[in-house]
Amino acid sequence: MTAKSATAAARATVYGYPRQGRHRELKKAIEGYWKGRITADALRSTAAGLRRTNWQQLAEAGIHEVPTGDFSYYDHVLDTTVMVGALPARHRAAVETDALDGYFAMARGTQDVAPLEMTKWFDTNYHFLVPELGPDTRFAADSGKQVSELKEALALGLTARPVLVGPVTYLLLAKAAPGVDAGFVPLTLLDRLLPVYAEVLADLRAAGAEWVQIDEPALVQDRTPAELNAAARAYRDLGALTDRPKLLVASYFGRLGDALPVLAKAPVEGLALDFTEQAAAQLDDLAAVGGLPGKRLVAGVVNGRNIWVADLEKSLATLGTLLGLADRVDVAASCSLLHVPLDAGLERDTDPQILRWLAFAKQKTREIVTLATGLTQGIGAITAELAANRADLASRAGSPITHAPAVRARAAAVTPADARRSQPYPERAAAQRAHLGLPLLPTTTIGSFPQTDELRTARAALRAGRIDTAGYEERIRAEIQEVVGFQEKAGLDVLVHGEPERNDMVQYFAEQLTGYLATQHGWVQSYGTRYVRPPILAGDISRPEPMTVRWTTYAQSLTGRPVKGMLTGPVTMLAWSFVRDDQPLADTARQVALALRDEVDDLEAAGTSVIQVDEPALRETLPLRAADRPAYLEWATEAFRLTTSGVRPDTQIHTHMCYAEFGDIVRAIDDLDADVISLEAARSHMQIARELAGHGYPREAGPGVYDIHSPRVPGPEEVAGLLRTGLEAIPAERLWVNPDCGLKTRGWPETRAALENLVAAARTVRAEL
Ligand code: GLN
Ligand code: ZN
Q1: Does 448 sit in the ligand 1 pocket, CB within 6 Å?
Q2: Which of 20, 452, 698, 732 is deepest in the core (most CB within 10 A)?
Q3: 614 CB under 6 A from ligand 1?
Q4: pTM, 2 dp
Q5: Tens of pLDDT along 425-465?
Q6: Ligand 1 atom closest to the CA of 742, numbered from 1
Q7: Relative to the CA of 744, which ligand 1 atom is closest?
Q8: CATH placement of domain 426-451+482-507+548-757
Q9: Which phi and psi angles does 13 have, rounded to 5°?
Q10: Helix-strand-coil percent breakdown of the chain, rounded to 5?
């Protein structure tokens, strides 16, 4: 590759950076403020300090243009709601009284006022607060946060580029406000919203912004012609403004497809595009529209979502091709670095051999700078970096961790028959009925029981070495004993052990599987002040020994009723981890499935007749584009079946999912070939039972009759009413009685009362059959 006549030196930049700080100072400050332990001023100064540290680190690493406005006390979409003045009516007074407290009220709700709804940011595990709009929404510009953060960065002598959520994406992510007809289309507010953006842009220019980045990730999803027209109009109008900075319209999480020609033609000065695997066709698409003559192209060549070192030579080759397609090419990560942890250098316990394969935000920043240098000065300027990178990649590719012959041979030998139960569902159902001898409308729970402070304290004590493993396991057994005793007394039919030994439904298994890596400091924002440490699928996956069998068999030893084994499914294991980028997801899923299959088989061999494999992430991992979904569902359902198909016909396989909207994946749910499925339904009054029936779902189902998201205890009559509603759609032979989800976030008193009511309701309704 030659760094041919790049007219200007390539700049290195990022769209956003982890907000929390090295020691999660932001989380601590915000929660301290909520508890009244620190003042608003103290919180503000902690936040300003974190922003300054981030910018300075970026600048010192060689990033030429730092982002501003990406910082948030809670969520950048909520910040946008404030910026455009779209405050929900129920929060307006609170925001006017105290902007900060009102902001947190919108995010978290108060005793009297509900928060905004939270949902996933595209296909990441970050959650944003959904704007609530209606035909009466009146926008008003409030550029205060954007302007002051820009000024902070400029005052440090940095080149800074404010980052805004774009108007089209903002409206496409919004929903109808409560009380507004659900058919209301927020995008119809575009003409009202654009003048607000015009005002913010003018303010940012006045404050010294040369460029402003406007993020439109919604354009990488399937869009109707009307939506594409709206995007064209938005950027025609914003482009036509005279008092504005230069505009960089950014997209990420995939290729623009039909939206690319729209933006390429728009009168804006630059586009930022994703050029990673996720957007594979983007380069060809860009060539097909004739490139971006006269425009600045910011090329997202370093993957902003995974934690692997980049292949610098491959990225340079992409950048080299792009030089021929735009006026100026700059280098960036494919999306904000918000979605990766801060610094792999903080990991002290990681095998140094693996550590060199990892790139968190700080390491990615360095890669971006190296690429920009190579692009500007030629590869001669980065020979040492390229050699080191080549060695890191070779170490990973040649490692027995990533290439375990036994795991690979086993995965390669899988046949379609391995992923099929030995008998079809109707025959299995009969065998299970005979084997389990359950009553009609059998009662059960989803797995976890309240995770008490005592349990968390015991786990912390174990980590700190204050108690030994034997002492810890003694506590766990005592808890299981209590949970089983309660369930017997309450009269539940299929019991669980309560999952007291699990810190988290993915991490618990990741810690026990070979090839999975846990981090010490790999925190990533999930929402607000909640951060998670996703484990890393680093190598080939195998299960050195049984993971749950001793707990399940212990529970089973305490009772004559069936105890349900409880596992997290392969798709969820992938969805809530960082995945490998050196092999197809389907291959990783298959390895995880085979490891879990061994666990399922061992549970059965140890006498477990009912085994539940949770897949709450099956739907949330759906690819953004409809065209990519069938292939995903194909491998995802196969992985589930591979996990569960090794058992006898009379062993009953359950699955669980935490959501009620499933219409778009009902075929896939059927393809799982599970014997029983439990789903959320209490809040929608068993709507899901009707939908399952409408789709002809042939198996057993437990639409939740107890909403575990709230401490409220449903009375026996209420539960009985829900069951009668369920029976209108699902015959008694196939209807189960269970809560919506696990009980780990609930307290014991309400759990006891609610489950007793649930059993009473099942008995009442059984008597009516
Ligand atoms: N078995 C898990 C539990 O009960 C399921 C959790 C989930 O679906 N998210 O906690
Ligand atoms: Zn659930």
Answers
A1: yes
A2: 20
A3: yes
A4: 0.96
A5: 999 999 999 999 999 999 999 999 999 999 999 999 999 99
A6: 4
A7: 10
A8: 3.20.20.210
A9: -150, 165
A10: 50, 15, 40
